[in-house]
Recover the amino acids of this structure.
């Protein structure tokens, strides 16, 4: 297992946010965690990233305890719902940020950033400012900025939540392609069951601080809490009604 | 229906904020060439020619620029250090409220307060004498009405730094720099790298127009340099006022000329600086 989370708990004051959470993630897998707002999804990701401290429990990465490791040494990138691009830097410099702070040689930065921008279809926008880009393009720059440092684990907090339906679908496909190509391990949090099914290889449901992991897609779909079965039967009933009216 | 300002009101306001200063500038220009003023004797270029030999205006301008630069540097440095180094204190506790206190003080009150505190006959000098740290009046360092303008700089910093700290704090929150901090940490940046590469450029570029106006306000400050400065060197406002208030009316054209040069120069500087800032605006 690349990531092992065991018995993780966290409370804010008297309010428990995460209750005895355990899960694992092997290299190359995408764990899609479905859940409603306020269920503890963001807190879980922030604890993994080192931005919050757990009250109890253990987080292991490749068998090493992550608790004493500061966020900037974990190589786990946390992506927000908004792209949060640096407004004073160009697209090129936004993507190059992680390399510049690691003092990578100039020539290597130029080459790697150029390749990343081409891969994300952003080559023509390299010298633009973030405010000159569309929502989808901004999110792609944010991806590029994270991927260029070759993170061991990507933590995505509803990254496409602010995009329109079409751009969102395009970004999901882009995420799938790039994830497979770079063999990226991710924990993808969303409140959209369709998005979870599209991007995930493994599935979980987080509600009121309790995480349920599903051994297969079938069980994830059939669990009444995910509402996927109910949605399917709704569409089936619509289809049958339409067919009856046609006859 | 959207509210539209009546044309007459708009025109009157425009006249007040643009027309009258421009009229004053034109009057000063006419005065400097002998075409306006109580003793105007016809068109002459002698006051402009004499300007080349008079270094007092240049010294006043350089002295003012040095004071304004020092005030801006110190105030920006202190405000940034506070906002980037004491976020927790600024969000909880009385610090934020205390920053408003100096802003409520009129500049003349601040100048009097510092004069009472720092002059050779002031409170600090008396305390140091009683404590045996100084034996004579001259042993206490000149902190007000000194040649280097320490008193002026100190008073201006005490007024400017809290204002800039509040401005930077508002930009910090509005720009979501806390979220940027967390993001850059997971991208591998240390706290110092976040400050240098993200927070500082963002805060300074967003605050640039206000920093420029603050420097111009210091450059034109009057009350504080009048009370805490020396007769020589003088800051621009004091220098100009002194020249305009002389009893000899024959000196008025030279004073008009100095006023015109200073106002015109400042306007040109302001336009150039604002254009540069706008080009790099976020």
């Amino acid at each position: 297992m690349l990531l092992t989370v065991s018995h993780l708990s966290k409370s804010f004051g008297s309010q428990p946010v995460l209750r005895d959470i355990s899960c694992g993630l092997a290299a190359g897998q995408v764990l899609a965690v479905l859940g409603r707002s306020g269920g503890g999804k963001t807190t879980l990701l922030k604890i993994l990233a080192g931005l919050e401290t757990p009250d109890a429990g253990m987080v292991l990465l490749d068998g090493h305890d992550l608790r004493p490791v500061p966020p900037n040494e974990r190589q786990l990138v946390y992506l927000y719902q908004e792209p949060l691009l640096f407004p004073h830097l160009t697209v090129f410099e936004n993507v190059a940020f992680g390399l510049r702070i690691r003092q990578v040689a100039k020539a290597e930065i130029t080459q790697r950033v150029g390749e990343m921008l081409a891969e994300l279809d952003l080559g023509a926008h390299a010298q633009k400012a973030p405010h000159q880009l569309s929502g989808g393009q901004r999110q792609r720059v944010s991806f590029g900025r994270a991927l260029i440092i070759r993170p061991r684990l990507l933590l995505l907090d509803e990254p496409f939540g602010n995009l329109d339906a079409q751009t969102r679908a395009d970004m999901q496909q882009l995420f799938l392609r790039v994830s497979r190509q770079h063999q990226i391990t991710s924990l993808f949090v969303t409140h959209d069951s369709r998005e979870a099914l599209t991007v995930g290889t493994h599935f979980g449901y987080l509600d009121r601080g309790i995480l349920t992991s599903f051994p297969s897609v079938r069980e994830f779909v059939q669990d009444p809490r995910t509402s996927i079965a109910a949605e399917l039967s709704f569409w089936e009933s619509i289809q049958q009604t339409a067919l009856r009216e046609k006859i | 229906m959207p509210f539209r300002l009546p044309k007459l009101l708009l025109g009157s306001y425009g006249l007040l904020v643009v027309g009258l200063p421009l009229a004053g500038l034109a009057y000063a220009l006419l005065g400097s060439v002998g075409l306006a003023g109580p003793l105007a004797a016809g068109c002459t270029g002698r006051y402009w020619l004499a300007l080349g030999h008079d270094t007092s205006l240049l010294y006043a301008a350089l002295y003012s620029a040095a004071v304004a630069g020092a005030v801006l540097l110190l105030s920006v440095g202190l405000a940034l250090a506070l906002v980037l180094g004491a976020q927790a204190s600024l969000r909880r506790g009385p610090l934020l409220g205390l920053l408003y206190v100096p802003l409520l003080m009129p500049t003349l009150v601040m100048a009097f307060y510092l004069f009472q505190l720092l002059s050779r006959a002031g409170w600090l000098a008396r305390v140091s004498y009683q404590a045996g740290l100084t034996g004579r009046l001259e042993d206490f360092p000149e902190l007000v009405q000194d040649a280097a303008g320490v008193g002026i700089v100190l008073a201006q910093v005490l007024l400017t730094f809290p204002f800039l700290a509040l401005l930077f704090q508002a930009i910090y929150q509005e720009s979501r720099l806390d979220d940027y901090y967390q993001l850059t940490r997971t991208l591998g940046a240390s706290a110092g790298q976040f400050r240098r590469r993200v927070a500082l450029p963002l805060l300074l570029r967003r605050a640039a127009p206000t920093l420029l106006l603050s420097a111009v306000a210091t450059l034109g400050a009057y009350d504080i340099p009048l009370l805490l400065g020396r007769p020589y060197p003088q800051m621009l406002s004091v220098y100009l006022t002194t020249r305009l208030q002389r009893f000899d009316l024959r000196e008025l054209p030279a004073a008009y000329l100095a006023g015109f040069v200073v106002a015109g120069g400042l306007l040109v500087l302001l336009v150039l600086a604002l254009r540069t800032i706008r080009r790099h605006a976020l």
The interface with chain B takes residues 46, 49-51, 70-78, 80, 84, 86-88, 97-98, 100-102, 145-146, 149, 155 of chain A (CB under 8 Å). The CA atoms of residues 77 and 101 of chain A lie 15 Å apart. The beta strands of chain A are 3-12, 15-25, 30-34, 56-61, 64-65, 76-79, 153-157, 186-190, 202-207, 210-214. Chain A has a mean pLDDT of 92.
